[in-house]
Amino acid sequence: MPSWLFFAAHLQPGVSHKIVFDETYYAKEAWGLLHSGYERVWQDNEKYHTNDKIAAGDLSGFMDQGAYVVHPPLGKWLIAVGEKLFGLTPFGWRFMSCVFGALLVMLTVRLARRLSRSTLVGAIAGVLLTFDGLAFTMSRIALLDIFQAVFVLAAVAALVADRDWFRWRLARHLRDAGKQDLDGAFGPAPDPQAVADYRRDHVRPGLRGEVELPVCAGGVRGGERRLGFGCPLLAGAGSDGGWAARH
Question: pTM of the full predicted structure?
Answer without folding.
Answer: 0.70
